[in-house]
Protein backbone atom coordinates (compact mmCIF):
# COMPACT_ATOMS: atom_id res chain seq x y z
CA UNK A 1 0.00 0.00 0.00
CA UNK A 2 1.52 3.31 -1.09
CA UNK A 3 1.52 6.14 1.47
CA UNK A 4 3.58 8.82 -0.26
CA UNK A 5 5.56 9.28 -3.44
CA UNK A 6 8.67 11.37 -3.96
CA UNK A 7 10.53 11.27 -7.24
CA UNK A 8 8.99 7.91 -8.12
CA UNK A 9 9.92 6.21 -4.83
CA UNK A 10 7.13 4.57 -2.88
CA UNK A 11 7.21 4.44 0.89
CA UNK A 12 4.80 2.03 2.51
CA UNK A 13 3.70 1.34 6.07
CA UNK A 14 6.68 -0.94 6.73
CA UNK A 15 9.09 1.78 5.57
CA UNK A 16 7.41 4.19 7.97
CA UNK A 17 7.61 1.60 10.77
CA UNK A 18 11.34 1.26 10.07
CA UNK A 19 11.72 5.05 10.20
CA UNK A 20 9.86 5.18 13.53
CA UNK A 21 12.20 2.51 14.92
CA UNK A 22 15.26 4.41 13.70
CA UNK A 23 13.94 7.70 15.09
CA UNK A 24 13.50 6.02 18.46
CA UNK A 25 17.04 4.61 18.40
CA UNK A 26 19.20 4.87 15.28
CA UNK A 27 21.73 2.47 16.80
CA UNK A 28 19.35 -0.50 16.67
CA UNK A 29 20.61 -3.42 14.63
CA UNK A 30 18.94 -4.39 11.36
CA UNK A 31 17.93 -7.62 13.07
CA UNK A 32 16.23 -5.78 15.96
CA UNK A 33 14.45 -3.39 13.60
CA UNK A 34 13.36 -6.28 11.38
CA UNK A 35 11.90 -8.14 14.36
CA UNK A 36 10.13 -4.98 15.52
CA UNK A 37 8.47 -4.35 12.13
CA UNK A 38 7.98 -7.97 11.05
CA UNK A 39 10.64 -8.21 8.33
CA UNK A 40 13.75 -10.30 7.80
CA UNK A 41 17.09 -8.67 8.52
CA UNK A 42 17.93 -8.63 4.78
CA UNK A 43 14.61 -7.09 3.80
CA UNK A 44 14.98 -4.47 6.52
CA UNK A 45 18.54 -3.66 5.37
CA UNK A 46 17.38 -3.37 1.73
CA UNK A 47 14.59 -0.96 2.68
CA UNK A 48 16.90 1.19 4.79
CA UNK A 49 19.49 1.25 2.00
CA UNK A 50 16.79 2.29 -0.51
CA UNK A 51 15.59 5.08 1.81
CA UNK A 52 19.18 6.28 2.26
CA UNK A 53 19.81 6.28 -1.50
CA UNK A 54 16.54 8.13 -2.20
CA UNK A 55 17.40 10.82 0.37
CA UNK A 56 14.48 9.98 2.66
CA UNK A 57 17.08 9.09 5.31
CA UNK A 58 19.65 11.87 5.24
CA UNK A 59 21.92 10.78 8.06
CA UNK A 60 22.17 9.49 11.60
CA UNK A 61 22.71 11.61 14.67
CA UNK A 62 22.29 11.80 18.43
CA UNK A 63 19.74 13.77 20.41
CA UNK A 64 21.31 16.17 22.87
CA UNK A 65 19.76 17.71 25.97
CA UNK A 66 20.94 21.31 25.59
CA UNK A 67 20.13 22.08 29.24
CA UNK A 68 22.64 19.40 30.30
CA UNK A 69 25.25 21.28 28.26
CA UNK A 70 24.46 24.61 29.92
CA UNK A 71 21.99 26.02 27.39
CA UNK A 72 19.05 26.52 29.73
CA UNK A 73 16.97 28.87 27.58
CA UNK A 74 15.47 28.85 24.12
CA UNK A 75 14.56 32.11 22.40
CA UNK A 76 12.37 32.49 19.33
CA UNK A 77 13.36 35.61 17.41
CA UNK A 78 11.16 37.06 14.70
CA UNK A 79 13.06 39.25 12.25
CA UNK A 80 12.10 41.71 9.52
CA UNK A 81 14.69 42.76 6.97
CA UNK A 82 14.93 46.16 5.30
CA UNK A 83 15.18 44.60 1.86
CA UNK A 84 14.03 41.36 0.26
CA UNK A 85 16.52 41.30 -2.59
CA UNK A 86 18.15 37.97 -3.41
CA UNK A 87 21.50 39.34 -2.27
CA UNK A 88 20.11 40.47 1.12
CA UNK A 89 18.31 37.19 1.75
CA UNK A 90 21.37 35.18 0.76
CA UNK A 91 23.74 37.22 2.92
CA UNK A 92 21.40 37.11 5.93
CA UNK A 93 21.11 33.33 5.65
CA UNK A 94 24.86 32.95 5.20
CA UNK A 95 25.57 34.94 8.38
CA UNK A 96 22.97 32.99 10.38
CA UNK A 97 24.81 29.77 9.51
CA UNK A 98 27.95 31.13 11.21
CA UNK A 99 26.27 31.68 14.60
CA UNK A 100 26.43 28.41 16.57
CA UNK A 101 23.70 29.38 19.04
CA UNK A 102 21.18 29.55 16.19
CA UNK A 103 19.82 26.03 16.01
CA UNK A 104 17.03 26.66 13.48
CA UNK A 105 16.13 29.46 11.10
CA UNK A 106 13.14 29.71 8.78
CA UNK A 107 12.27 32.16 6.02
CA UNK A 108 8.52 32.55 6.56
CA UNK A 109 5.43 34.24 5.20
CA UNK A 110 3.36 36.62 7.30
CA UNK A 111 4.23 39.58 9.48
CA UNK A 112 7.91 38.65 9.86
CA UNK A 113 10.52 37.48 7.37
CA UNK A 114 12.35 34.96 9.59
CA UNK A 115 11.72 32.85 12.68
CA UNK A 116 14.96 31.92 14.40
CA UNK A 117 15.37 29.50 17.31
CA UNK A 118 18.35 30.25 19.51
CA UNK A 119 19.85 28.25 22.39
CA UNK A 120 21.40 30.38 25.16
CA UNK A 121 22.66 29.85 28.68
CA UNK A 122 20.55 32.61 30.24
CA UNK A 123 19.26 36.14 29.62
CA UNK A 124 22.74 37.67 29.93
CA UNK A 125 24.05 35.24 27.33
CA UNK A 126 21.17 36.22 25.04
CA UNK A 127 21.90 39.92 25.54
CA UNK A 128 25.56 39.24 24.64
CA UNK A 129 24.51 37.33 21.53
CA UNK A 130 22.26 40.20 20.44
CA UNK A 131 24.99 42.83 20.86
CA UNK A 132 27.92 40.82 19.53
CA UNK A 133 26.31 38.86 16.72
CA UNK A 134 22.66 39.32 15.78
CA UNK A 135 22.51 43.13 15.78
CA UNK A 136 25.72 43.28 13.77
CA UNK A 137 24.05 41.60 10.81
CA UNK A 138 23.35 44.33 8.24
CA UNK A 139 19.82 44.75 6.97
CA UNK A 140 17.76 43.95 10.07
CA UNK A 141 14.90 46.44 10.32
CA UNK A 142 13.08 45.00 13.34
CA UNK A 143 13.21 41.99 15.64
CA UNK A 144 11.05 40.60 18.39
CA UNK A 145 12.28 38.07 20.96
CA UNK A 146 10.23 35.55 22.91
CA UNK A 147 11.67 33.25 25.58
CA UNK A 148 10.30 29.71 25.56
CA UNK A 149 8.89 28.88 28.99
CA UNK A 150 8.25 25.19 28.39
CA UNK A 151 8.52 22.84 25.40
CA UNK A 152 5.26 20.94 25.00
CA UNK A 153 6.22 18.89 21.96
CA UNK A 154 9.37 18.48 19.94
CA UNK A 155 9.68 16.16 16.96
CA UNK A 156 11.57 16.17 13.69
CA UNK A 157 8.88 14.22 11.84
CA UNK A 158 5.10 13.94 11.94
CA UNK A 159 5.39 10.21 12.67
CA UNK A 160 8.31 10.18 15.12
From TrEMBL:
InterPro entries per record: AsnC-type_HTH_dom, Dimeric_a/b-barrel, Tscrpt_reg_AsnC-like, Tscrpt_reg_AsnC/Lrp_C, Tscrpt_reg_HTH_AsnC-type_CS, WH-like_DNA-bd_sf, WH_DNA-bd_sf
Keyword Transcription: yes
UniProt GO cellular component terms: cytosol
Pfam families assigned: AsnC_trans_reg, HTH_AsnC-type
GO terms assigned for molecular function: sequence-specific DNA binding
A Gene Ontology BP annotation from the UniProt entry: response to amino acid
Domain HTH asnC-type, first and last residues per copy: 11-72
Protein keywords: DNA-binding, Transcription, Transcription regulation
PANTHER family: LEUCINE-RESPONSIVE REGULATORY PROTEIN (PTHR30154), TRANSCRIPTIONAL REGULATOR AZLB (PTHR30154:SF34)
Protein name: Lrp/AsnC family leucine-responsive transcriptional regulator
Organism: Glaciimonas immobilis
The organism's taxonomic lineage, starting at the top: Bacteria, Pseudomonadati, Pseudomonadota, Betaproteobacteria, Burkholderiales
